[in-house]
Amino acid sequence: MTTTISAQAYEELWQEANPILQQLNSLSYSDVILQFPSELGQGFQQAINLHQGIELTIDNYQLHSDLATKLNEHDHPIQYGFCLAGSFRSGGDDLSPGQYWFCGSGLASGGVFERSRGQYLQINVHIAPELCQSLIGTAGQIASELLHLFREPHQEYQYRHGKVTPVMRLALQQILHCPYQGITKQIYLESKVLELLALMVEQEIEFQRGKTPTPLLNTDDLDRIYQARKILMQRLANPPSLIDLARQVGLNDYALKRGFQQVFGKTVFGYLHDYRLEQAQQLLATSEMKVTEVADAIGFESRSYFASAFRKKFGMSPKAYQMQCKV
Description:
CATH architecture of the largest domain: Sandwich
Low-confidence stretches: none
Order of helices and strands: EHEEEEEEEEEEEEEHEHHHHHHHHH
Mean pLDDT: 89
CATH superfamily of the largest domain: Jelly Rolls
CATH class of the largest domain: Mainly Beta
Distance between the termini: 38 Å
Strand content: 25-35%
Number of strands: 15
């Protein structure tokens, strides 16, 4: 059954779920965790205002049922986003994991945003049009291939979607697994957001000139690599061996190792290690589980090793991070 909700009601549910914002730092930039409305699902959105005019959001949640949100007409900023898990339909287009969208500024006429039941992981960046113009312009001039991105408030905005490249995916994983805190985190994330903007602009120029970037892996192999990652994510506590994983997705172990490194920028079990820690970070921030329970849930048999690995990646112990999130 599909739950249909208006944009206003959807926003009200978010406000009710977050009467007090969980601020993750005390610095000049904003970094907050918003709990997903429990009536609709479970999870969170991390909203980071990195710079005046630049907002980074990370959505990680699971819907209880199919959801259709009726959107109102509104001003649209420059936006680029990436679907890493979950499928949805927007503006008559179906988007699935491994795809990106690049939207210009202008008028968004509204419509229905449809999401299927299940797990979602998405990264979005919103940039004020004036700031984006200053970033990608030269001596105040915008390349002709990019002029369509900047439209008047009464003109409907332009958008395009495409396939996430391995280089984009690496930057996305670095955002999800940011190893820093405080002002260093802000600088690091800003650099990754701008790196992704450069990659999006490069793709847009090539597209407008009639060029199609050459994929580094064929579609079938790419699907198998993503399937391997899905298996790892589903079996955090008891992952298969490299040979077993390769057999399950129909690749030999060398092709799996090479392809995984190419797509995700990490070894198979290096990715698993980082993903476990990412899940631990989310559980510590959003659940009532004890540190030992979190370690068990994500497959760390040694509590001391878990604490050491968490501290190395996030700069503090699991307990200290959990206490910080609950302040």
